[in-house]
Write a structure and sequence with these properties.
Blueprint (H helix, E strand, L loop, with lengths): L3 E5 L3 H12 L3 E5 L11 E2 L8 E2 L6 H4 L2 H5 L9 E2 L3 E6 L5 E4 L3 H7 L4 H12 L2 H8 L10 H11 L3 H8 L3 H11 L11 H12 L6 E2 L4 H13 L3 E3 L15 E4 L3 H7 L6 H8 L6 E9 L13 E6 L3 H12 L9 E4 L1 H4 L9 E9 L7 H12 L7 E7 L1 H7 L36 E3 L13 H15 L3
Parallel strand pairs: 1-2, 1-10, 2-9, 6-12, 10-16
Antiparallel strand pairs: 3-4, 5-8, 6-7, 11-14, 11-15, 12-13, 13-14
Helix pairs in contact: 1-11, 1-18, 4-5, 5-10, 7-10, 8-9, 8-10, 9-10, 9-14
Length: 475
Amino acid sequence: MNRRAIVVGAGPNGLTAAALLAKRGVDVTIYERDASVGGAARSAELFGEGYLSDLGAAAHPFGIASPIFRELDLEGNGLTWVQPDIPMAHPLPGGRAAMLHRDIEQTVHELGVDGPAWRLLHEHFSHRPFGTVENAMGPLLRIPPHPVDMARLGLLGALPAATLAGLLFKSGAAKALFAGSSAHPTLPLTRPLTAAFGIAFGALAHSTGWPVARGGSASITDALARVLLAHGGRIETSAEVTDLRDLPEADAVLLDLTPKQILSVAPGQLEGRYAAHLANWKYGVGVHKIDYLLDGAVPWADPRVASAGTVHVGGRMEEIVAAERAVNRGRMPDRPFVMVTQQSNADPSRTRDGKQVLWAYAHVPNGGAQGARAALEAQIERFAPGFADVILERREWSPTALEAWNPNLVGGDIGGGTLAGTQQLFRPAPSLHPYRAGRRGLYVCSSSTPPGGGVHGMPGMHAARAVLRDWSRGR
C-alpha cells in the first residue's frame, strides 16, 4: 500500500519536500492558504503589464548551487538562471565601488594589497561550490558530507566577520565587500560564525554566481510545482489549514510553517517540552522592502555598479557593523544596511520602454520602525546622487505588511527565526532530529529548521528524507 503525505504550505521548502516524496512514489497533497504557490518566492506585475517584480526573494546564489534543485532537475522543468555581468557591487564613500566578480582573478587584482588574503579565504571553496553548499546547508550537529572541507571552513568561518576582516584585510574595499556578504543572516558582525557566511557567499560568486531566475523568482517555485504534478502530486490552493485535526488521514504531515503558525494549527497536539520550545522561539531582524519602477538606470556614482545584479548599500565595514548591531538591539539606524537587486538588468524580459524595475530592502528592527523608507532611500541616494529623480512609482512593504502577505515572515523576519544564540544549532528545538515535530508522523520543513532562510529547498529536502528514513526504520 502506498504511503500518503500531506504538506501544509506551498513555499519553496514545502514544494521541495512534496516533490521529493512524490518522486519516491508517495501520494502527496499540498494545502496552500493563498490562491497561488510560491510563498515568499513569487512575482507579480506590480507596475502594470510588462513590469515584473519579485515579491520576496530576488537573487539566488544558494539556489543555483542547491543539490536538491539539481536532483529535481528544475532547469529541465522550465527554470532558467540568468547571470548578471557582475554578481555583486559594494559602493564606497568617495564615489568608487568594490566589485565581486565571477572571475576570482579579476577580484584579486582589483583588491590590490588585499588580493592574496581574498584568494586565501575563497579560492578553495570556489572550486567546490556544490560540496560547500552540502556542508553548509544542513544541521550543524551532524557528520558533514565533506568533513575535511567543513573543518577548513570552520577554521576561519567560526570567527566573527568583523574580526576576520580586521585581521586579514588592510583596505576599506575588501573589508566592506566581505562585511556585506556576511550581513545576509542579519546578525551582528561581531558574532561568532558570521565569517562563514561571507566566505560561502564569496565562493559561490566566484563559481556558480549570484543569478536571478528568468521570468521572476516565481519561475523557481513553478518548476517545483511541475515536478510535483508530474509525479502524481496534488496542490490545493485557497485551502488554509487552521487545525491539523481537520486534515485527511496521512502517514506523515509536513509543515512549511514557523513556530508561531505551528502552535496555532496544532493547539494542544504537541508534546509539552516541544511546544514550550516553540513558544519561546525568537524571531530575528525584519526587513522593510520597496519595489521601484525607475525612469532608466540607477545613477550610481560608480557607473560599473549598474552592471551588478546585487548591490550592498552600506558604506564602510564599520558602518555595517554599527547598523547590524543597532537593528539587533531594536533600534533603527540612520544608515541601515540596504540590499538592492537590479534583476531587470540581467533579465530584460522583466521590463520595457527603457524603464528599470528595482528591488530593495533595509534591515530594520523586527516589527518595523518609523522613518525606514526615508533611511533606505537616503542610503541609495548617498551612493547614487539623483536616485530620487528617476523614481516613477514605488510599492512599499513594511514588516507588518510582509507578515500580512505571508504569515511566515513574522515581524518582517525573512529567515524563519534568528540565528543568534542556540537557535543556529537547534532549530526549532533542541534535538538531534530537528525535522520531527514533537508528535508521531508530524514534521517541520520550513526555514525554522536547518539551515534556515533562502530559496534553496534544503529544509524541505532534509525533512522529506527524514520522513523516508523513519518509514524505512518502521517508525
